[in-house]
Amino acid sequence: MHNFSRYKIKIYKIYWDDCDDLYVGSTKKLLSNRISQHRTICKTGKKKTKIYEAMKKNGIYNLRYSIIESYEVFDKEEQLKWEQYHATKLQPNLNTYRCHNTNEDYKYYKINYRNTHKEQIRNLNKKYRENNKDKIRIYKTEWARKNRLKKKLEIKIIYKTDKDNSIFT
Fold this sequence. Notes:
Elements: E1 7-15, E2 22-27, H1 31-44, H2 50-58, E3 64-73, H3 76-90, H4 103-116, H5 118-131, H6 133-164
Antiparallel strand pairs: 1-2, 1-3
Helix pairs in contact: 1-2
C-alpha cells in the first residue's frame, strides 16, 4: 500500500534592505534552521553559487528572510514545482538553477548549451580522443565484434524462421 501522506513546506525569500538581491527557496525544515544552514555553507565556502557570493558581499547576518507561502505537498517534485512557480513570479537574481524543469525546458537548455559551447565541446572531445587512443581502439574493436555476432545471429534466426514457415519448401 502506498503512503500518500502530505508534509508542510515553506517557500521563502532571502533579501537585503540595501540592495535588490533576492533568492527564493523552499524547505520542509524550520525556516530558521534552513537559514542557519545557508549561513554555514557560506562560511565554509563549500558552494560558490550566487546566493553565497551575495551573502559574503552583503553580510551573512544582515540578510533578511520571510515566508512567501506555505503548502502541503506529497513529494519533493511537487515542492520544487511550487518553488519554481514563485521563482518565476518574483524573478530572483540569485537563483542559479531552475528548481523544476519540464522535458521541454531540459531540451531547450541542452540545445542552447551545445550551441553556445560548440568550440569548447569540440576541443574537449578532441583532447579526450588524443589522450585515450588505446581505450577508443579497444572499444571500437569490441563494438565491431559484438555487432558482427549480432548480425550473424539475426541472419540465422531469420533463415531458420523462414525455413520453419515453409518459405523454402
